[in-house]
Amino acid sequence: MTRVAxxxxxxxxxxxxxxxxxxxxxxxxVLADVNEKAGSEHARRLGGTFVAADLSTRAGCKALVAxxxxxxxxxxxxxxxxxxxxxxxxEDFPEDQWDRMIALMLSAPFxxxxxxxxxxxxxxWGRVVNIASIHALVASPFKAGYISAKHGLVGxxxxxxxxxxxxxxTVNAICPAYVRTxxxxxxxxxxxxxxxxxxxxVIEKIMLAPAAVKRLIEPKEVADFVAYLCGEAAGTITxxxxxxxxxxxxx
Length: 251
What we know:
Blueprint: E1 4-8, H1 13-24, E2 28-33, H2 36-46, E3 49-52, H3 58-72, E4 77-80, H4 95-123, E5 126-131, H5 144-164, E6 169-176, H6 182-195, H7 199-207, H8 219-229, E7 241-244
Parallel strand pairs: 1-2, 1-4, 2-3, 4-5, 5-6, 6-7
């Protein structure tokens, strides 16, 4: 049986790497993103399906899963990856940015999991992988929205894992340190502005300072971990917030 994998934020970065890796594993991939041009091109290249979706709305989440089910009849794998960053002190943090970040990075994973759940239960097998962040486990200043959403995502992961176990569904969160993606490139620029540093100094003195391994993570490395969690060999791993953090939390 060919399994169907739905990946959000799949037009670039970690999401694209996950789509490529899962397609290489023989899965039928559904790529979701707001970037229609890039998403459509990558879906064609991978022999998959692209769905344009605004996941900051309930209607957008519901329409995405409905489209995937209409195209393929089932969804066995869900990778919740879509997200973005905003850097600002709490006293200046825009309220609309808070609302959007919580909607996209916490409410959307809940809704997509909820809408895919019946399909997974019916097949008595499912894999949900939430792309969290090392900032789901620790905090940094100026990232209230992002860190709150990612901490909440770990709670959602654990709760869903407890409910899914009897149905053959595993739910896990991967918590990587900084990955070389367009999102991180934007964070570097924001941090440089906020801290009045050069971008090279941000990488060296902020991003890599807590790490034992002094390099950025590549998207493919995260995708390899996702592929493992989506396979049969990882059937005993569920409810875990798995640090992929270059030794950040070893201190």
